[in-house]
Amino acid sequence: MEAQSVNDTSPIAVFGAGGKTGREILRHAVHKGIEVRAFEHTLPEPSDRVDGAEYFQCDVLNDDFNKELQGCRAIISALGIGFSPSTAIDPPPLYTEGTSKLVEAMSATGISRIVVISAAFVEPQPSVPMWFELTAKPALHNFLEQMRAMEDLLERAKGLEWTAARPGWLLDEPYTGEAVITDERLAEGCFRCRHSDLAAAMLEFVCEGSWIAGRPAIGGPEAEHYENPAAIKAELGID
Predict the structure, then answer these.
(1) Could you tell me which residues come within 8 angstroms of residue 42 by beta carbon, excluding any fewer than 6 positions away?
(2) What secondary structure letter does DSSP report for 220?
(3) Residue 48 CA from chain centroid, whole number
(4) How far, in Å, CA of 194 to CA of 143, rounded?
(5) What angle is formed at CA 25 by the lines to CA 23 and CA 31, rounded to 5 degrees?
(6) Which domains does the chain have, with CATH numbers?
(7) What angle do CA 144, 113, 203 make, to 5 degrees?
(8) What is the DSSP string of 16-64?
(9) Cα dihedral angle (108, 15, 166, 212), rounded to 10 degrees?
(10) How confident is the model over 129-167, as pLDDT tens digits?
(11) Which of 29, 57, 85, 180 could form a disulfide linkage to 34, CB 3.0–4.6 angstroms apart?
């Protein structure tokens, strides 16, 4: 389909807008005066919504959302799967089939720009502690395989201006504005990545047209109590 007539003031569509990173993307966008359309499987209560964002209920795997995408200049996908024993064994195909649905909708509506969340750990990271590689990463195997397949899907798509953001282990702490962004692999000492810093980086990639066909790794130095094995295992629910 012929590309839509869009410009730098056209809205950005954010999928997975109700998650931790998605909400932060909305907050950063509204703060910058950027119009955003927030797509979420289950709409948050009005009191939990980000003021200034326009919300749409959307099951990305099953719904047709082409109409709601009309006029958008880009998609940011913060789609993600919560970790649990059942999802670790058999995660829903949100990264693969969900992203494929987004790409189909982009083709139908003339949108060419998409930024998605992948993970630094889809490939070996020299700066990541060995204990993480040996204990935590195996529990994430099926998630990471989906993310790797998602990256391959984007790379194969024709006419797509894609970016696969690769954050370190995500951390729910306030925005710093000091994330270190490097090509594909995390910088030394930047094992973790705050949701809000990731959100700001993804929005920046869209607004500045940077990292097209790239896999930027995003992380930052954190206090030891955020990075030790006990903290990571507690977040994963691993004994």
Answers:
(1) 18, 57
(2) B
(3) 20
(4) 19
(5) 105
(6) 12-236 (3.40.50.720)
(7) 75
(8) STTSHHHHHHHHHHHHTT--EEEEESSPPPGGGSPTTPEEEE--TTT--
(9) 30
(10) 888 888 888 888 999 999 999 999 999 999 999 999 999
(11) 29
Nearest to 54 by CA among 78, 79, 72: 72
Contacts with 233 (C-beta within 8 Å, 6 or more apart), sequence order: 135, 136, 239
3-state helix, strand, coil in the chain (%, to 5): 40, 20, 40
Is 74 within 8 Å of 13 (Cβ atoms)?
Answer: yes
Q: What single-letter amino acid sits at 237? A: G
192-194 and 180-183 beta bridge pairing = unpaired
Burial of 200 (0-12, 13-18, 19+ CB in 10 A): buried
What are the two backbone dihedrals, phi and then psi, of residue 118, each rounded to the nearest 5 degrees?
-110, -140
The Cα–Cα gap between 96 and 149 comes to: 7
Quick check: 1 pLDDT over 50? no
* Percent of the chain topping pLDDT 70: 96
What gap in Å lies between CA 68 and CA 58, rounded to an integer?
10
The answer on pLDDT for 3 being more than 70 is no
